[in-house]
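Good morning,

Attaching, inline, the backbone tokens for the sequence recovery test we're adding to the shared suite. The designed sequence is right after.
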């Protein structure tokens, strides 16, 4: 694939951020973006242009009916100046699974990967240096055809943008408080819960905002049928540790995002010798576990969020405090190993890293 690379006059290049300490998640974007169009059944005109607004029909199917998908990845800068991608083949696979569910065309893995490598190479100076900061990668596909009939678009734009980011939660690697949603649900069996599509996130905005106003960083979703079993947190999957066994919700209902970090935590935890149970766990069992002390730890896992210790669940009007609001030993061990692999400060026994 021959990518055309536009030039940006020096006086139009942005000022880089002043300090990595103030890199709010998702607020800044680099100078360039990648774009390619799908029309007449094929991807064409791959190009790197200046980052900037898109021209879209007001009737574009993405805007009217939400035919959009995206991925979340990070490039981690190592001490020797390389950029580490973490299991990028899995992002490409998940992107194409989301595309299928949303009646969108797939993208060939080599187009996606070449585009990403070329863009990262041009923008590598934007990658922050601190552990915990990264260059966040947001590949996106949208239906661009303008029409009001509810049918899949016949034209698409695939693009990649890059955002230098600090930790997703402003508090960094510290326990967070989570609001358990009793009224709203995120996804139902047969719906789009497993796909990374905008609507899943749109549905979370109202209660997410209410939770934030009350001092909770995230919302924990329960299953749609019984409103009882824990599913995920929207920006991350969630793990509960009982007596050295890690529980997380199974993926078979199709209502949960199959997280790369989730899969990696499962692998690392097994190799540390812990048992893993991908089983439905009810809020009642969780509250009992907190009360009787058998629930030792809870943490979230996601690309943006990394590993996020959870210190409090608010459910049925009460705050349930986990592990005295301290980071648990298993959470810490998994965080250290994951971060070590991602920034190449320890050996990568799994060959998860692809350096560019
Ligand atoms: C990610 O973890 O990369 C996500 O896409 C979650 C969220 C920030 C939308």
């Amino acid at each position: 694939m021959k990518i055309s690379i536009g030039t940006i006059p020096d006086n139009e290049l942005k000022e880089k951020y002043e300090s990595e300490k103030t890199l709010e998640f998702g607020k800044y974007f680099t100078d360039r973006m990648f774009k390619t169009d799908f029309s007449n059944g094929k991807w064409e005109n791959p190009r790197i242009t200046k980052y900037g607004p898109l021209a879209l029909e007001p009737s574009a199917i993405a805007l009217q009916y939400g035919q959009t998908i995206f991925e979340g990845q990070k490039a981690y800068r190592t001490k020797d100046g390389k950029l580490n991608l973490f299991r990028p083949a899995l992002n490409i696979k998940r992107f194409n699974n989301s595309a299928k569910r949303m009646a969108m065309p797939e993208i060939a893995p080599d187009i996606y990967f070449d585009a990403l490598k070329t863009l990262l190479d041009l923008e590598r100076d934007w990658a922050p240096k601190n552990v915990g900061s990264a260059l966040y990668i947001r590949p996106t596909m949208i239906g661009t055809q303008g029409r009001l009939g509810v049918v899949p678009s016949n034209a698409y734009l695939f693009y990649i943008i890059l955002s230098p980011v600090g930790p997703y939660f402003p508090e960094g690697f510290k326990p967070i408080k989570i609001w358990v949603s009793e009224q709203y649900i995120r996804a139902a069996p047969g719906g789009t819960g497993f796909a990374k599509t905008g609507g899943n996130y749109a549905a979370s905005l109202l209660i997410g905002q209410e939770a934030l106003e009350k001092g909770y960083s995230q919302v924990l979703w329960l299953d749609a049928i019984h409103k009882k079993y824990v599913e995920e947190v929207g920006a991350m999957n969630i793990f509960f540790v009982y007596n050295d066994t890690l529980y997380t919700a199974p993926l078979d209902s199709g209502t949960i995002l199959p997280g790369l970090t989730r899969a990696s935590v499962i692998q690392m935890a097994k190799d540390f010798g812990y048992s893993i149970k991908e089983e439905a766990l009810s809020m009642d069992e969780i509250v009992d576990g907190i009360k009787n002390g058998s629930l030792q730890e809870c943490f979230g896992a996601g690309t943006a969020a990394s590993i996020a210790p959870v210190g409090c669940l608010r459910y049925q009007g009460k705050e349930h405090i986990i592990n005295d609001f301290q980071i648990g030993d298993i959470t810490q061990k998994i965080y250290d190993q994951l971060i070590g692999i991602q920034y190449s400060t320890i050996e990568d026994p799994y060959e998860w890293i692809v350096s560019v």
